[in-house]
Design goal:
The protein is globular. It folds into 3 domains: 3-42; 61-183, no CATH class; 185-400, Orthogonal Bundle (MetI-like fold). The chain is built from 17 helices and no strands. The chain is mainly α and 400 residues long. Helix content is 76%, strand content 0%.
């Protein structure tokens, strides 16, 4: 179907559709024009350029920011290792089945990476253009080089030791956090680095807890089922902002201050429990979507309840609820901005505070800082959404 035929069939089918299309096109065109004019012509981005480090790492000491650079390079290397090992296993499985994978030209691989991560790459280029020194450019080049080196090394690592590579993403944070918190305790972190810490740790912790709560709610043991239902319904019924405030203020009335963990730990616990309650309901819906006949067939084969749940029911249930799970994780990523109410210097707090600096006070620059903060969150949320869709296509979610 040609473009003219498609437009006539979908946009100008009758007079009412034509008027709606024209009006909507004018509105969209006006919004795009105003946005482009603000970004390119009228926007005063010096406030963002001057405070770029504050947006990204908060008050992290300048003399210790090399630690962040080392972690970024190490993360790129580990990501390359995992990607290389995955490619090696995929190639080995294809050869074992007698269907070797076709050779993909290097340019096609680059094009695929750009199409897959273009929002993140665009944001990276924007940050590099806003930088005042050459250090960010060197860091970006070193991270890319480390990722490529990890990819080549991972593709050549034997499968018998490949399990260690897949364990690195889970073990690495345990070593990274003490390394980053040595010069500045994480209670004083800020910017996007604090947001990524809160979101990533909470996502990793809430998923297994949510799965356990979902299984507990479907358990035949009355006590376990009652406890699971109570936890889920209690935390789903409390606003997250109340839990954040309670983690900072109310716990001091019940426990001695000396026994309380740091503020970041308490906030992470609040985010984790709150999100786990929603994850539990999402997983419970997935468990209900698995046909009962599969459980009965597994029972007929003599499988234990644990093996039935772990090998048959739960994998299918999680596959069915990938969109809802990722949507909940994206919501958690954006909800981390609530920590400003207990004094953390998160991205939104930075966006508001930098406009009060002496050189920018009274100039009405809040629009520029909020747009930049919104861009940071949009790139993270959109990337998660695109990766979710990619996993869905690979697993065939929604198809029979």
């Amino acid at each position: 179907m040609t473009a003219v035929a498609w437009a006539r069939s979908n946009l100008f089918r009758n007079r009412r559709d034509a008027v709606t299309t024209i009006v909507a096109g004018l509105i969209v065109g006006w919004v795009l024009y105003r946005t482009a004019r603000f970004v390119v012509v009228t926007g005063r981005w010096e406030v963002v350029r001057t405070n770029l480090t504050l947006f990204l790492v908060g008050r992290y000491p300048n003399g210790d920011q090399w630690r962040v650079a080392v972690v970024a390079i190490g993360a790129g290397f580990v990501a390359g290792l995992v990607a290389g090992q995955v490619a090696r296993r995929r190639l080995g499985a294809a050869i074992a089945n007698g269907t070797p994978l076709p050779t993909v030209p290097f340019t096609d691989r680059v094009r695929d990476v750009v199409a897959r991560y273009w929002p993140a790459l665009t944001l990276l280029l924007l940050l590099l253009l806003l930088a005042r020194t050459a250090s960010p450019w060197l860091l970006a080049a070193a991270t890319i080089a480390a990722t490529v080196a990890g990819r080549l090394l991972g593709a050549r690592t034997p499968r018998r030791v490949g399990w260690a590579i897949f364990a690195l993403p889970a073990v690495l944070p345990l070593a990274v956090l003490p390394f980053l918190t040595d010069p500045l305790g994480w209670d004083r972190w800020g910017g996007m680095m604090l947001t990524l810490l809160l979101a990533s740790v909470s996502m990793i912790a809430c998923f297994p807890l949510g799965v356990l709560l979902a299984l507990g709610r479907r358990s035949t043991l009355p006590a376990l089922r009652a406890v699971s239902i109570g936890v889920i319904e209690f935390f789903r019924g409390i606003p997250l902002v109340v839990l954040v405030l309670m983690s900072d203020v109310a716990l001091g009335f019940f426990f001695p201050r000396d026994l309380l963990p740091g503020k970041v730990v308490r906030v992470i616990v609040a985010f984790t429990i709150f999100t786990a309650a929603y994850v539990a309901e999402i997983v419970r819906g997935g468990l209900q979507s698995v046909p009962r006949g599969q459980t009965e067939a597994a029972q007929a084969l003599g499988l234990s309840p644990v093996r039935i749940t772990g090998l048959i029911v739960l994998p299918q249930a999680l596959r069915n609820v990938i969109p809802a799970l990722v949507g909940q994780f994206i919501s958690l990523f954006k909800d981390t901005t609530l920590v400003f109410i207990i004094g953390f210097l998160d991205v939104l707090s930075v966006a508001d505070n930098v406009t009060k600096q002496p050189e920018f006070r009274g100039q009405g620059l809040i629009a520029e800082t909020l747009v930049f903060a919104a861009l940071l969150f949009w790139v993270g949320s959109y990337t998660l959404s695109r990766e979710s869709q990619r996993i869905e296509r690979k697993l065939g979610v929604g198809t029979r």
